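Marked as duplicate of an earlier ticket. Keeping the data here for the record.
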Amino acid sequence: MAFHRRRNHYYNRFRSILPLIFSISGALLILFALLSFLAPTPIDSNNPQHTNSLYARNGVVEDTIGQSVLHIPKKGRTDRDIWSSKNSLYYYGCSNASIKFANADAVTQPNRYLLIVTSGGLNQQRTGIIDAVVAARILNATLVVPRLDQKSFWKDSSDFSEIFDVDWYISSLSKDVKIIKSLPKRGGKTWIPRNMRVPRKCSERCYQNRILPVLLKRHAIQLTKFDYRVANRLDTQLQKLRCRVNYHALKFTDPILRMGEKLVHRMRMKSKHFIALHLRFEPDMLAFSGCYYGGGDKERKELGAIRKRWKTLHVSNPDKERRHGKCPLTPREVGLMLRALGYSSDIHIYVASGEVYGGEETLAPLKALFPNFYTKETLASKEELEPFSSFSSRMAALDFIVCDESDVFVTNNNGNMARILAGRRRYFGHKPTIRPNAKKLYRLFLNQTTMSWEAFTSKMRTYQRGFMGEPKEVRPGRGEFHENPHTCICEDSEANAKKDSGPGKYGKGYDDVLGDDEPELPDPDDDGYQDGPQEKEQFNGTGMDYDGITNEEPELEEILSD
């Protein structure tokens, strides 16, 4: 009995304190939930994209990185014109032929026909179309309108006349090269040309020694996979011919031009000035770069699967790639760069891009910095874009037009579109073209937590000197000719008089502009120049590959050209 009394006593005491235990447990649960809600998201220390958040407070954007906050003022730079270069007035495009450059009628030989099959996306194919005219001139041959690549990664069925004004192309170059729309029949039968592959960076002598003998024998040859198959360094008159083709003969068709002009007009209706950004943060771009953006195993798995397209890619070191400036900036980093260069939050920005890796979450920081954010899809209706939306090259052409017409063009990689537009903007007045100095900016973004916004902007402007599209940023002969068409840019007498008088930040000389930090553009005539894996070409005794291409892995230019 005594045992049962003690047990009932303890049981009654336990029941009396049970509500207190439940109350304490409930309070602890609420406390833990509150702490979990208020605590920062776990951070990947190697991730430049997910280690921060951007938000607006009292008109000031704050960029929070760990425990450090950058207070980004709403207003931009007012101490200089951020929309143009004062020295651009003293330079102009000049590509007219010399009187010594013989008329096409005088040099074109009968029974010599050159056919070209281009390769890659729109802008890679553009380089082939340009160089096809030069190759025909070297060979004194009649050029058949180039055939576009319809089988590569892009799988665009458009032909030349559906993208470019073919009649203008033929007529505007009539004094330089004879061009016809199709190969004439031979003896009433279809003429089948001999397929050949030209080695990359083939010089005038290369064409004369390797291709001309076959052309003289067969009378009609077709050069396949024709991209970057003409040397970067050529005779001055041939370089000027390149410019005449690129900047004057190649015009988009009227439907593309009209739609492109609509997009530009709609941007102009919103603001007097606007920036166009070629973002290039698509999954294929990131996969090829071998860079890591902090997405953990999910990112490594997804991008790793895409990298398998290129069987020749070596295993990359993401940290090394970023240190060497090989990684595209994240949308957040691009936005911070532009704000630090003086572009205010109310500026309108047009983004030319495909599918952005990470979607809206990735774009959110850029949109926080520049809320006036547009694409062709937001400016035009589905019905307006319907004639173009099924064709990657036609959609790329629309982006090309808007980027070309923008007041400031920003590129996030050095692919074909970026290079061609950089050269075009130099030729037509040195309109500002910003290319991130990625090697220097890597460390700046890495050390961002240790400095004020004022110090950050000061370093940004210092590091970007020489990367803003100013005259004489790149020495003649450096880089790919389509990006640096130095032969076709002339200096007027006023510039010659002023360049040696008075202080000036730009326009005096290469060393004055660049200091010790000239943009590191590769020399395309060196063996190391390529956007992607070395193409394995096998040549026969004459140095040529006579067979077409089948089942090749996509080359980098195909993936990254637009």
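See parent ticket for discussion. The two ends are 92 Å apart (CA to CA).
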